[in-house]
């Protein structure tokens, strides 16, 4: 097993910069998540778009606004966007923005939901 630092938003309740333990013994070379070793200061939020898809002008405008709030966006077409916020302490601005837009969102990691 080995430890890897996450460089992009992925599943398993982890965020950019988290260090995870992976199983690297598969014959095909595919790494399998085992556990989170340490957490970074990043937080990740997932948004489900209902009125448009990630390729529509509405989504492009929304993404621009999120980026102005210092969120880094990754899209999973057709309707999911993941938002990385570098500092947990500044995530409230993003949450307020998403809630104000009546968007359906959830924590993609467990930092905020578990304190």
Provide structural commentary.
- With 115 residues, the chain is α+β, with helices and mostly antiparallel strands.
- It folds into two domains: 2-38, no CATH class; 43-107, 2-Layer Sandwich (Alpha-Beta Plaits).
- It has helices spanning 57-68, 91-100, and strands at residues 2-5, 19-23, 32-38, 43-48, 71-76, 80-85, 104-107.
- It has a four-stranded antiparallel β-sheet with strand order 5-6-4-7. The chain has a three-stranded antiparallel β-sheet with strand order 1-2-3, with no helix packed on it.
- The longest helix is centred in the middle third of the chain and has 12 residues, at 57-68.
- The model has no long low-confidence stretch (mean pLDDT 84).
SSE layout:
Blueprint: E1 2-5, E2 19-23, E3 32-38, E4 43-48, H1 57-68, E5 71-76, E6 80-85, H2 91-100, E7 104-107
Antiparallel strand pairs: 1-2, 2-3, 4-6, 4-7, 5-6
What can be said about this structure in brief?
This protein has 115 residues and is α+β, with helices and mostly antiparallel strands. It has helices at 57-68, 91-100; strands spanning 2-5, 19-23, 32-38, 43-48, 71-76, 80-85, 104-107. It is built from 2 helices and 7 strands.
